[in-house]
Write a structure and sequence with these properties.
The protein is of the alpha/beta class. 33% of the residues lie in helices and 24% in strands. The chain has a 5-stranded parallel beta sheet, with helices on both faces. Strand 4 and strand 5 form a beta hairpin. It is globular, with a radius of gyration of 18 Å. The two termini are 27 Å apart. The C terminus is likely disordered.
Length: 220
């Protein structure tokens, strides 16, 4: 499903990943743990193709994400931690816009049932900017109910949601795994999910001076 092979990443002349590898198979769920700044979000962003590793290969279904190009987006659903919604659009406009961009067609009853699961029916015509952070997170997580992708990338999905929403999300994630899906997610909140494995990322303290970084870059 997902292969991360020997990646290196440097940010602000600091090494974030050094020969890091990861293998996520069908029906597996992997938790990324670690303190702020260790690279959890950077790793998910690399897999999603939002930033490039300095070295190494990332494959989805045995094809490099660079080889897949824009087609890679069909192979996964990514829910970032930071608000990825359009603040001046309504809940409906955000979700229906995402469905259109994802080439997904959902009938009215299915759409309303999904909203109901996260208790969004009564606020579907509200502007995102008028919602609480918890409500915004629910809107973003609703995308999972529409997703046809087998691979889910979730950055801190349990952050900022109440106990009831947490229980709902865990059921959704568990169901996805039972349907032969795969999940890579980060969290600093105890999940109590049945994990395939847990990866604890640790901060690399090594700093590079300009000369050594330039030499390394010239070797690529």
């Amino acid at each position: 499903m997902l292969e991360v092979n020997s990646i290196y990443l440097y940010r602000n002349r600091k090494q974030v990943f050094n020969n890091f590898s990861l293998d996520l198979k069908n029906s597996e769920i992997i938790l990324l743990e670690g303190e702020n700044g260790v690279g959890k979000t950077s790793l998910l962003n690399m897999i999603a193709g939002l930033i490039n590793p300095d070295k190494g290969i990332i494959k989805i279904y045995r094809k490099s994400i660079f080889e897949l190009g824009e087609k890679r987006k069909k192979n996964f659903t990514y829910i970032p931690d930071k608000n990825c919604l359009k603040e001046n659009l309504t809940v409906n406009e955000n979700l229906k816009g995402w469905l259109q961009l994802s080439n997904l067609k959902i009938n009215y009853s299915t759409y309303q049932r999904a909203l109901n699961i996260f208790s969004l029916n009564d606020i579907q015509e509200f502007l995102i900017k008028n919602l609480s952070q918890g409500q915004k997170k629910k809107v973003a997580l609703t995308k999972l109910l529409f997703s046809k992708s087998k691979l889910w990338l979730l950055d801190e999905p349990l952050n900022g949601i109440d106990t009831k929403t947490t229980a709902i999300l865990k059921k959704i994630m568990t169901h996805h795994i039972k349907q032969n899906g795969s999940i890579l997610f980060s969290s600093h909140v105890k999940s109590n999910l049945k994990l395939t494995k847990k990866i604890v990322l640790k901060k690399i303290t090594k700093k590079l001076d300009i000369e050594s970084l330039d030499k390394w870059e010239n070797l690529k």
